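Dear Dr. H.,

I hope your travels went smoothly. While you were away I took the liberty of generating a structure for the chain from your last submission, since the lab meeting agenda had it listed for discussion. I wanted you to have the full record in hand beforehand rather than looking at slides cold. The sequence, exactly as received, is reproduced here:
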Amino acid sequence: MNLFHQPRSLNRLMAIGLAVVALGATLSACAPLMVAGAATGALVVVDRRTPGAQLDDQGIELRAGNRVSDQLGEGRARVAVSSYNRRVLLTGEASNEAIKTQVGQIVSQVENVKEVINELGVTSSPSFKERATDTLITGRLKASLVDAKDISASAFKVVTERGTVYLMGRVTQREADRATDLARNTSGVARVVRVFEIVTEAELAGTQTQPAPAK
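The corresponding predicted structure, in token form, is as follows:
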């Protein structure tokens, strides 16, 4: 079957299935994950970023995670790195404000990074229950994006941390507002933070949808 023409009901099942797989991985972990690239990308193999930007984002997530781990070691921060069109979102926890600032500085020096949005909390790491809840929230919202008939689910990247949903993507103002409304009405969501790159309808029409590079 051509992936570009799958029924929405099948895509919705894929979204929920991804959430269940991620939840299982979360609950089966025996040791805390200190640094990781976030695996919360598009639901289908299309993307509004250029192939070069997609590859840069993958490299940024890998290099940033490795550098933070190498320079800070274990126990001082739990950092999830999410890059979209070379804009980097940092979520997780830092042991204090100085560590939070240091993580931001480390990531800002990674090649190809244009901007860092540092959303690290200065708090203890979430429990397994909190992580499981975040995973379910992400799955619910992705399913809602698939079900919506007036926007493209593949245009959005969803990251959830302690009930806060971060929305990333290259979208129009209408799409941004629609996705925000869906997020706010998703069960379990406490707050929505928009990390969008807003483009006009004309700019979007002139952008050819790009295939996602193989991972």
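Two observations you may find useful: DSSP finds six helices and ten strands in the chain. Residues 1-6, 20-34, 38-44 have pLDDT under 50 and may be disordered.

With kind regards,
E. W.
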